[in-house]
Amino acid sequence: MLSSVLSLLLLGLVPPARPQSPQFLLSNHPHAQNIPTVHESAIQARRILNLSSIATFSTVFPEDHSTTPLENRPHNVGGAPIGLTDYYASCSPTPHEPTILAVSIATSFKNARAGSNVTLSLRYHPPVDHPSGEDIYTYSPANLPRFSLLGYIEPVPTSEVEKYHIDRCFFESHPDAEAWKPGNAIHQSWWARLVVEQVYWFGGFGDRAYIGWIPVEEWRGVSQDEVENARLVGEHGYQKAPPQL
Predict the structure, then answer these.
(1) CA angle 157, 158, 163 (to 5 degrees)
(2) Strand, coil or helix: 81
(3) What pLDDT, in 10s, does the model give residues 151-169?
């Protein structure tokens, strides 16, 4: 009987065992093993911030209905959220607080100037040449880490831009953005940063990854060495943690 089953497996007539479905999706399993710590999760989040340079900026429209003729904003969107993709970069002296080239006419920054807080949402994109996964869940977008940074936008002083070459840092990631750098002839723009006040992390399915808030002190306390030495699933050098006994 065993030899018959093996023969059928070799012929591809018997489907392989199905991968084990996640036991918890949107919250942590109370008895799960090998879930990364909050600090390890903070390192992973900072790694994603370092690898990426595009995020979704979410803001809220102001309640007042004053608009310019060019905007033509509907009168009933006051208090409604809107998320738009924009550029950012991780630049010194605060690589944990995304550097932004804010264009004054853009909706996200108009809402921010009107008093809206700002949330940046990011997700991890594995390298295109990543190795094959253990099962269908390894690279499932539902299981890959993502997070949000909640805070507010503040201008970066010109002295700081010059001292730390923030423009050079930003344009290394976004060379096309030189067209709307401060002083351009198209739109008014200015250097800014997101001052991070809260971090919400969704590391993956709840039976294998941490899900929850990361204290901002933990977020700020991650060193650049930790960021540069970290590896996420799919990156060269990534090693899955061994199961706990």
Answers:
(1) 100
(2) strand
(3) 999 999 999 999 999 999 9
